[in-house]
Amino acid sequence: MDVLSIFKQINCMTKGILYDLLAQNRKTCDFTFNEITQENSTLKLNEDTASVGFIYRHIGELMHLLAQFFGIPAEVKNTTMGKLTMVRCTTRKKAKN
Prior knowledge:
The protein has 97 residues and is an all-alpha fold. It has helices at 3-34, 52-69, 83-96. It has one domain (3-96). Helix 1 (3-34) packs antiparallel against helix 2 (52-69). Residues 84-90 have low confidence and may be disordered.
């Protein structure tokens, strides 16, 4: 068996796993996502956590990123990945001064 055929088998297995993860994600998150409204999207567990709306948007961006693994082009601009960490670092530095 040559390297290319091994890669194709691994690639098919990986896509199968990703499809299963996507299907499970839809089942797991469906109820919760349907309950998010404009009114409750600003809620947080505490001051140091992201809002429900931020997390919802972040999950959406990750799903579009995942779709690219299946060859589905996604023209979604990243607005959440890495942003929370930068905000927290900036806030903590200001609080120390």
